[in-house]
Amino acid sequence: MASARQILKGARLRQLAVQAGFDLCGFAAPEPIEPRVLLEWLEAGFSADMDWMSERIEKRLDVRALFPEARTVMALGCNYWREDTDAPIARYARGRDYHATLKDRIRTLRRLLKEEAPDIRTYSSIDSGQVMEKVWAVRAGLGYVGKSGCLITEPFGSWVVLAVMILDVEVDGYSPGPMPDRCGRCRLCIDACPTHAILPNAQVDASKCLSYWTIESEGAIPTPIAETMENIVFGCDVCQSVCPLNNFPVVAQERFAPRAVGQLTTRELAAMTREEYQRLVPGTPLARAQYDGLRRNAAYALGAANDSSACDVLEVLAHDDSEKVREAARWALKRLAS
Question: What letter would DSSP give residue 245?
Fold first, then answer.
């Protein structure tokens, strides 16, 4: 068995990553991230009210502040595209929560690494800590950041979710940098964004983004945003759906298959009972919006669609116990009546 102090072979680590269930794997040296990558975005106010993005910045910009022994950053990715219905829920959120799936695979990968190098130490992150996974995916050669702000990979387009495992050992080769930019002069994602949230330099203004408003926000959604929510209840795939680099998707592993809740219509989500919510939503990303948040979003979406057949559902929601659900339903009814 190898010693954790030895330089490990990247080819072998990639084999282990695939064995653990990952589709993509690359390596980068743990050099600090240029501060402007994050600070300019924060200073421009593009983080909306996600104040946690400005916390512990030193750890976001330098993985060695999180894990002083860091010698290698292993960037990992999984394709999640599955062919299914045109649901009002973003594709990544239609099945099991990807955080749980990636955590399972990280645990498997750590076990496999320990078998190769028993003394190895690692630190992992899956889109919920201070590690900037997309930056490391670019540095490790998994892809590049397209005009949409999404990571675009060669085999899977932008239909990927990311994780990072930091190692206290070196590998025998690191990526020379990001993949070549294939966006060219195309600006379909910019033009198609319903709220004009996509900005120059591959930046996204979260204060305009429908993913932010349908997942992170808890109060009333401003009318200019709400009016764009037709067929959008949780997350938004518009920029990815119009991208030509996503025209030839690869079907993901069964673990990413949609669950029943991922096939519900906007009306069915609006009319969801608490019992149905408890049966269908736990264990999926939709749980983040909670019961009232999902129904609030669905009410706005029905209004945005000018769906007069939904008046009966909206009339019920207009007298709901939740203030934000009532506000959304009354906004929708007023719009339908105008």
Answer: G
Q: What is the DSSP string of 268-311?
A: HHHT--HHHHHHHSTTSGGGGTHHHHHHHHHHHHHHHTT-GGGH
Q: Is 320 a catalytic residue?
A: no
Tens-digit pLDDT profile for residues 199-237: 988 889 999 999 999 999 988 999 999 999 999 999 999
At the top level of CATH, the class of 259-338 is: mainly alpha
Q: Where are the domains of the chain?
A: 1-258, 259-338
Residue 326 carries which DSSP code?
H
Considering Cα of 267, then 225, then 89, then 245, what sign does the dihedral take? Answer: positive
Closest to 79 measured CA to CA, from 15, 33, 25: 25
β-strand 198-199 against 203-204: which pairing, if any? antiparallel
> pLDDT (tens digit, 9 = 90+) per residue, 30-84?
999 998 878 877 777 777 777 666 677 888 899 999 999 999 999 999 999 998 7
This prediction has a pTM of 0.92
Active-site choice (127, 191, 205, 307): 127
Helix (H, G, I), strand (E, B) or coil at 217: coil
